Amino acid sequence: MTSLLYIAGILIFVVSILVSIGLHELGHMIPAKAFGGKVTQYFIGFGPTVWSRRRGETEYGVKAIPLGGYVKIVGMLPPGAEQLGTVEYDDQGNQVTRIRKSNTGIFTQLISDARAAEWELITPADDERLFYKMAWWKKVVVMAGGPSVNIAIAFFLFWTVFATYGNPTDDAVDSGAPVISSVNKCVIPASEQRTACEAGDQLSPAFEAGLRPGDTITSFNGTAITSYDQLQELIRANKDGRAEIGYERDGTAYTTTTSTLLQDRPVDTDHPDQLESVGFLGVAPTTHRVTGGPLYTLVQMGYTAEQTVEAMVRLPERVWGVAKAIVGVQDRDPESPVSIVGGSRIAGETASATWLPNDAKITFLLLLVAGFNFFIGAFNFIPLLPLDGGHIASALWEAVRRGLAKLRGLPDPGFVDAAKLLPIAYVMASAMLVMSLVLIVGDLVVPIHITG
Which residues are in the PDZ domain (predicted)? Predict the structure, then answer.
């Protein structure tokens, strides 16, 4: 049964990602066709074709390597001299058109080859349907459509989880007089990354005072307690002074006396690394998962966006860490990025985990798919080719350039030639391929596992 659940988790994740890829490509294709563009191919995956079928002018299909997808929109690159030809004259003075056959420089040749491939099947009938001739805002809509779909998928999945199960990473303290959920047996310095007590650790004031989970704190040094925030402020302000604590257990009122300890603790949730010397008792209140609707989801996605931007900035560094883990130089960071292989493994382990209740499994799988979609969407908005953001940036620059020329009474500068950015695209594509391969190998050799 465990093996079947493991396989089911993998299949659910892989199918969800493939559906997301398909919807991403629809986000490009639908507006492209709506604006009159010609779409000749719609494929999920790369490599050899597994299945395809033509409907109208578009070929739909699936390829063997499920690591992405694409739609072929005719005329992404404007023509160069190779496509337009060069006007020359023969010995008799007659005008002739010759096609330039060679270029100098590796990047010039790459650009020339890309244009040639782009224009190989373009016919005169396609002239008014070429992508590069679209209005700049249409280009933005077409290219932003794909990643926007991924962001929308993430939004609806996050919203579904937050509105039903609640946000697993956002706990709120129960209202009213605080009920203790746990009591620290010992005092562990905030700077130490451990949870278990060790020999020589000092007993916590709460443990010495006999407090237990389930007790309700009713007073602190004679002050009636109505919330955990109030209790926490009193404890911190008490420093290492005497503390008389009133509490209820099973409906009976009790009083105990202890002394709080002076400890370096984080007091600002926005800056957890900044410590202050405050009073410490050693209790934690009962909490509940926060639930919310669309606005709450948007706020949480804003936080996720900040984390995603940071993750993208550090992506090369963190992939390098995975590479070092592969060769055994260091252990793999459990927070390091994973490929679709790692995501599939995590999904399988989640579905088959005996220590997780079913609602938690479903929630985790939904959040896993949502997280992948959010990252894919955000990553594709990076303004560099071959990513969608590179085409968006070209279209926006075209709008700015033409607008400035019009204001200054200058001739229309024409379309932006995205082909000139292809050298950057080749470098980016190579880097993305290398990082993908490192993560796939890492997920096979030094995988990340979920823990209970």
Answer: 204-248
Nearest to 157 by CA among 16, 44, 341: 16
Tally of structural domains, the chain: 2
Section 185-204 average pLDDT: 86
The verdict on 158 and 179 lying in the same domain is no
Whether residue 82 is contained in a domain is answered as: no
Q: 178: buried, middle or exposed (CB in 10 Å: 19+, 13-18, 0-12)?
A: buried
C-alpha dihedral (376, 381, 382, 384), degrees to nearest 10: 110
C-alpha distances (whole Å) from 7 to each of 19, 60, 219, 291, 450 are 18, 28, 53, 31, 16
Q: 376: exposed, middle or buried (C-beta count within 10 Å: 0-12, 13-18, 19+)? A: buried
Residues of the domain holding 400:
135-169+292-452
SS3 354: coil
What residues have CB less than 8 Å from 88, skipping those under 6 apart? 95, 96, 97, 98
Q: Where are the alpha helices (DSSP H) in 165-213?
A: 205-208
CA 203 remoteness from chain centre: 42
Q: What is the pLDDT of residue 106?
A: 64
Residue in the block written with tokens 């047996």: 185
| Token pair for 57 | 């002018």
CA angle 152, 153, 155 (to 5 degrees): 60
> Which of these is catalytic: 25, 82, 118, 349?
25
Q: Please tell me the distance from the alpha carbon of residue 362 to that of residue 166, in angstroms, as a whole number.
A: 12
User: Can you tell me the mean pLDDT for 4-11?
Assistant: 92
- Phi and psi angles of residue 91, each rounded to the nearest 5 degrees, phi first: -65, -25
Find the helix or strand (DSSP H, E) in which 14 lies: helix 2-34
226-264 residue pLDDT tens: 999 999 999 999 999 999 999 999 999 999 999 999 998
* 317 in active site: no
Please list, in sequence order, all residues whose beta carbon lies within 8 angstroms of the beta carbon of residue 384, skipping any fewer than 6 positions away: 390, 393, 424, 425, 428
Of 285, 316, 340, which residue sits at a domain end? 285
In the listed set 285, 314, 333, which residue is the last one of a domain according to the structure? 285
Phi first, then psi, for residue 117 (nearest 5°) are -65, -40
Q: Which ranges of 217-339 does DSSP label H, i.e. alpha helix?
A: 228-237, 294-313, 315-326
Decide if 127 is inside a domain. Answer: no
